Amino acid sequence: MIILRSILFNTLFYANLILQMILLSPYYFLAPRKKAFVIPKNWARSNHWLMEKIVGTTFTVEGLENIPKGGYILAPKHQSLWDTYALLPWLDDPVYILKRELMWIPIFGWYVARQKMIPVDRGAKGKVMVGVMERTKKEMADGRQLIIYPEGTRRPPGAEPAYKYGIARIYRDLEVPVVPVAMHPGLFWPRRKFLRFPGHFKVKILPPIAPGLDPDTFYETLIEKLEWVSDELLIETVENNPGLPLPPSAAKRMKELLAEKDA
């Protein structure tokens, strides 16, 4: 049953993306940019509905009161395709720094460009990165929310932390709050796999880390806060979803955490 539901969900997920991009293009490209963003937000909501009705996966968001007004950096854990779009309905005017190849995808790339997302060559250095930061500062000056995944790429639930120091440099240069977000969607939508698993999990938005810390202190603070809550959520999610198949990284971390509790 899980296999059939996963196939159905994956089919409808991509069909939903393609159909909405095509059918809603007239409004998207003619409306003011910020108003047009209601289309990606509603697309995210429709995906949540599909996942609940077809797969049986639900989630709750806690800590919305921690989201500051104006510009800030959102720093979520990154485990799945799910977390690339899931929080869009709760964000005012988000912006991503993304690999430039995504801009070359027909229709999708046009949608991305319409929202003034910031493309970058992953191997870029020097003047190119200076230009990226100048562009980012300009967007942030308009009160936008920059979404950065501190570990850079998707990591399996419970894996050893692998934070990139780049977020500390961006924090220093932009001088805005950073809002960490802990969650474990990778238990239900695993990376590089087509299976989707039913159950319920929480997304926790943590209190913002204020600007002004030196980069090293910020970096250590971010890791400490985010990993502490991630460990708590891992235990809670696994205990509340008996029978959920765990990837090796999550099973290993659960053993470590339960041993610490018993010690």
From TrEMBL:
UniProt feature coiled coil, ranges: none
Keywords attached to this entry: Acyltransferase, Membrane, Transferase, Transmembrane, Transmembrane helix
Keyword Cell membrane attributed: no
Pathway as given in its UniProt record: Lipid metabolism
Pfam families: Acyltransferase (PF01553)
GO molecular function, one term: 1-acylglycerol-3-phosphate O-acyltransferase activity
Lineage: superkingdom: Bacteria
UniProt-listed GO biological process terms: phosphatidic acid biosynthetic process
Signal sequence bounds: none
Protein name per UniProt: 1-acyl-sn-glycerol-3-phosphate acyltransferase
Annotated source species: Rhizobium terricola
Taxonomic lineage: Bacteria, Pseudomonadati, Pseudomonadota, Alphaproteobacteria, Hyphomicrobiales
